[in-house]
Design a protein that fits this description.
With 313 residues, the protein is of the alpha+beta class. It has a domain at 157-250: Polyamine Oxidase, Chain A, domain 2 (Alpha-Beta Complex). It has helices at residues 8-12, 16-23, 27-41, 50-60, 63-67, 83-93, 129-132, 143-149, 208-213, 218-233, 266-270, 296-312; strands spanning 105-109, 112-115, 118-120, 123-125, 136-138, 157-164, 178-179, 187-190, 199-206, 242-247, 281-283. Helix 2 (16-23) packs antiparallel against helix 3. It binds flavin-adenine dinucleotide. Residues 73, 102-103, 126-128, 131, 135, 157, 159, 248, 253-254, 257-259, 285-286, 294-296, 299 line the site of flavin-adenine dinucleotide.
Length: 313
């Protein structure tokens, strides 16, 4: 566990911003490292503890595994969109999946737990800690558990896509993938569907870029994002035929992404409450994973671990 790492307290008392300032010698290196942190965590380096960054990278195998396309987390896309995974699983599960039924309270008494409309012997809460803290628990959760969830905010991301008749950058020999230190869309991918038409450039607004531009109008964001695309891929990128965007912080049942992030001191002071069941209430979700925390793989590992707890309990 991160809090058992040798020197954990020292690693956890500093933010990534502190570490970058102390370690990187040039302004470009500082900016590049900050962009990497924002791309992976969608927060500013000042928001996240060094220990959390180290744990997150270690849980995936290494930093390169997080940011690489070939052989890394960015390699594959799911044809039709990643929501298809949950939609197909829900089809198989049939009526046992209840949609549009947000759980607002969880009450345990004797050997029964009532979560929203459902009564069961045990409950697995598989939502990010920041959202789990919005559920009302009876009896109230232990202080350490509640205070942990007060320290795991979601990152800020807007996903912005510009649509063109064709992926024109490919004819220029360009991959469509870029990191642009002058933002605001610092991380860019070619999101053209497998058939090759239409051409789609995807730009992420992350951390402060999402917070600042999130308050602007859609037209202002479109201009800002296509401005980055034009700087990287040429003037043609400035005039897409369509523009689509999604603000994950505005989604009531996500409130940001890619996952909950731990600031300084959170792992070492509160981390042990992350997976510890509270009576008949168990915790899953990608934030509780020890492998690929923050990713789909982590969510699956966490689900299996929580299911095993319930089976043994
Ligand atoms: C833009 C974006 C890009 C990403 N890219 C990648 C990627 O390339 N690869 C990757 O592996 N991961 C990626 N992720 C992260 C990935 O989506 C998460 O790691 C994964 O979805 C976590 O799964 P989960 O089951 O833990 O939580 P979630 O997927 O957040 O599921 C929680 C579910 O609980 C529901 N819920 C919330 N509150 C309540 C409530 N009170 N009652 C009932 N239901 C509730 C929500 O609606 C949601 O369906 C990305 C995320 C985003 C936003």
């Amino acid at each position: 566990a991160p809090w058992d790492t040798p020197g954990a307290a020292r690693l956890d008392e500093q933010t990534m911003a502190t570490w970058i300032r102390r370690t990187a010698k040039t302004a470009t290196a500082r900016e590049a490292l900050a962009t990497g942190v924002k791309a992976v965590f969608s927060v500013e380096p000042a928001d996240v503890s060094l220990l959390h960054v180290l744990f997150y990278a270690a849980s995936a195998g290494g930093w390169d595994d997080l940011i690489d396309t070939e052989g890394g987390a960015q390699q594959d896309r799911i044809v039709g969109g990643s929501q298809l995974i949950s939609l197909r699983m829900a089809e198989e599960l049939g009526e046992s999946v209840r949609l549009s039924s947000p759980v607002r309270s969880i009450a345990a008494s004797g050997d029964e737990v009532v979560a929203g409309e459902v009564s069961a012997r045990r409950v697995i809460v598989a939502v990010p800690p920041a959202l789990a803290s919005r559920i009302e628990y009876d009896p109230a959760l232990p202080g350490l558990r509640d205070q942990l969830t007060q320290r795991m905010p979601m990152g800020s991301v807007m996903k912005c896509m510009a649509v063109y008749d064709e992926p024109f950058w490919r004819a220029d020999g360009l991959s469509g993938q870029a990191v642009s230190l002058p933002g605001p869309a610092q991380v860019i991918y070619d999101n053209t569907p497998p058939g090759g038409s239409p051409g789609v450039l995807l730009g992420f607004l992350e951390g402060d870029e999402a917070r600042v531009l999130g308050a602007a109008t859609e037209a202002e964001r479109r201009e800002a994002v296509t401005g980055t695309f034009a700087r990287v891929f040429g003037e043609r990128a400035r005039n897409p035929s369509g523009y689509i965007e999604k603000d994950w912080s505005a989604e009531p049942y996500s409130r940001g992404c890619y996952a909950g992030v731990l600031g300084p001191g959170a792992w070492t002071s509160y981390g042990r409450a992350l997976r510890e069941p509270v009576g008949r209430v168990h915790w899953a979700g990608t934030e509780t994973a020890t492998r690929w925390m923050g990713y789909f793989d982590g969510a699956i590992q966490a689900g299996r671990r929580a299911a095993e707890e319930v089976r043994l309990g």
